[in-house]
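FIELD: query
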Amino acid sequence: MMANLLEMAIFASGQPDYLEAITLKNTRRRHPSSLASILSISSVLVMLALFLFVFRLGQQIENRLREDISLLVLFHLDTEETEVMKLKSELESRESVKEVHFTSGEEGLKEMTQDLQQDIENTLGFNPIPSSLEVHLNSEYANQVNLARLKLELGRNERVREVSYQTGILEQIEANARKILTGIGVLAVIFALISITLINSTVRLDLYSQRFLIRSMQLVGATRWFIVKPFIGRAILNGVLATLIAIPVLAGLGYLLWIVIPDIAGTLALLELAAIGGIILVCGVLLTVICSYFATRKYLKLKLEELY
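FIELD: result
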């Protein structure tokens, strides 16, 4: 306390640069409370990253399920293959279509013969299996409205005998997706409130040990920005350090998850994982800066007897 008052006296005597250096040194000194603050913020960032990962993973799984829904187009037996391929090319050129698989009547007959272990063509005297197209839409277009519209459009083609898709499976996917998104939305709000509360409490506890330094600077006429600036700088550093601790932890958890579920490695692209890392970095720095700013302002407004 006396050392701080001496530094304030130096400031009052016209040497603010020296005081600023001393203040920065004090605020950046690694007290046990600062280390605890960084570790606490890291734990919150790890939870945030895991939440984002699970949310994005759920979206990817839903997209895969939607894209697995196929619209089956069966043609009349006398339809030429060139006409079928022409329609296939036209569908593939559409933005909503992901891919189109063509199966000729001969290929369909071969598959059915293998399944039934019976030569159907010799029994009937002709090939009863028509040529077909299996249409898969991109996930953002794979919904009831677009599939019903495409089914109606293709059904008007005079060469098409039948168009069908798995309506029950799609309805179940959409119903479950709505429930999951609602639940994730509620959890996101709760988690955001918990994260902000935890980081705010951690930062306030860390600044509590500096309250007398803040008051001493205020008593000798230091401006509000002069007092707040070093604490903002330390908050930025704490946020970056917390992120640097959180990322290896997340990498380790991701590796363990990959060992348990190998298929998960190809679910999220490297760019998406980098985006999650960027989000937790921004959140870590932004939240610590905001909390530090308001906590410092709180101690600037307190009366002397309230500091004890």
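FIELD: remark
The first strand starts at residue 70 and ends at 75.
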